[in-house]
Amino acid sequence: MTGPIIVGVDGSVTAGKAAEAARDLAVALRAPLHVVCAFEGNRTEVVGSGSDTWIHSDADTALGIAKNAAAKLAAPGLTTTYAAGRGRPADALIAEAELHSARMIVVGNRRMQGLGRVLGSVANAVAHAAPCDVYIVKTVD
Known about the structure:
Blueprint: E1 5-8, H1 13-29, E2 33-39, E3 44-49, E4 52-57, H2 58-72, E5 80-86, H3 89-99, E6 104-108, H4 114-119, H5 122-129, E7 133-137
Parallel strand pairs: 1-2, 1-6, 2-5, 6-7
Antiparallel strand pairs: 3-4
Helix pairs in contact: 3-5
């Protein structure tokens, strides 16, 4: 497979750990890295001041998070892209993986223990439905 490595971010420390592991894998495999932040809502806020108007949405916020994470993950020789994906985190990661013919999806192990394991986790949902390999990073004990 020659597609990118997909990693999801949400601004949390644990997602940052998974993203760093994804970067290291991408560098080692000489694969591109695609950073995704999911958003579920459709909220849009219009703010105006005088003749100036700004439109801010959940998609804008998610795209900003992905862009900032991608910038922090920059490494020599690594091609990094970013996107905001609509839907629940697992669904957004799977959709991006399908869209880009991904080599691998990297996720953290948050919510894979205790009650979170029963209720479900992003890693669990991705592992069951991914169109490619899934690498689960130990981000929490």
